[in-house]
Design a protein that fits this description.
By secondary structure, the protein is an alpha/beta fold. The chain has seven helices and five strands, in the order E-H-E-H-H-E-H-H-E-H-E-H. Helix 6 links the parallel strand 4 and strand 5. Bound molecules: flavin mononucleotide.
Length: 192
């Protein structure tokens, strides 16, 4: 059997991003659990705001096609999202919207979402840890026909969640991340 490949996508480009930091921690955890991990930045897939006229005139941008192919090359995907006004940031929503418009000739609609497992996590300075963004992201991915695993991680007070070795400090966060990584690997393996 080929190695299990997991793609990790942080939903923030900000320097010092709490979500990029959590994505890096999660990537390490998933790799330690035995999967091959690719950790990307959406900065490498710059996309205009979705506009149906733009799509009609010029087609889907090549970066959306490349991002979709990146998803297709992996068995599972972890998305780590910031919370903006109780929802996902436009960077992430726009990327998902464009990818959902990529239609390769030999594929059915939504196949790239349907055929792999998705996990979601969020980091925020607030007590809720981005829980509302997770609910929004779960809804969006489900609308795209993705299988989103039940386990998720909302990292509360994320600026203080790490020790000086850059490891998660609180047992509940460590346990939640471990459970998320194990379930993502397990469901991805079953969908291979
Ligand atoms: C437009 C905007 C709206 C925000 N709304 C929320 C919110 O609803 N809940 C929350 O916990 N944090 C909210 N925040 C704070 C972000 O969670 C915080 O800036 C976080 O660090 C962003 O993620 P990043 O560090 O990965 O870039 C908001 C920030 C911005 C810029």
């Amino acid at each position: 059997m080929s190695a299990l490949k997991i793609l990790v996508i942080p939903g923030s480009l900000r320097s010092g991003s709490l979500n990029a930091r959590l994505a890096a921690t999660a990537a390490l955890e998933i790799a330690q659990a035995g999967a091959e991990v690719t950790h990307i930045s959406l900065a490498d897939f710059p996309l205009p705001i979705y506009d149906g006229d733009l799509q009609s005139k010029s087609g889907v941008p090549k970066h959306a096609v490349n991002l979709k192919r990146m998803l297709a090359a992996h068995h599972g995907v972890l998305i780590v999202t910031p919370e903006y006004n109780s929802s996902v940031p436009p960077l992430l929503k726009n990327a998902i919207d464009w990818v959902s418009r990529v239609q390769d000739a030999h594929e059915t609609r939504g196949q790239v979402f349907r055929e792999r497992a998705f996990a979601i996590a969020a980091a925020s300075e607030s007590r809720l840890g981005g829980t509302r963004a997770l609910a929004a992201l779960r809804l969006i991915l489900t609308a795209c026909h993705a299988t989103v695993i039940p386990n998720q991680l909302a990292l509360s007070f994320a600026g203080e969640a790490y020790d000086d070795m850059d490891r998660l400090r609180h047992p509940a966060d460590i346990e939640a991340l471990g459970a998320l990584a194990r379930q993502l690997i397990d469901v991805s393996q079953r969908m291979m």
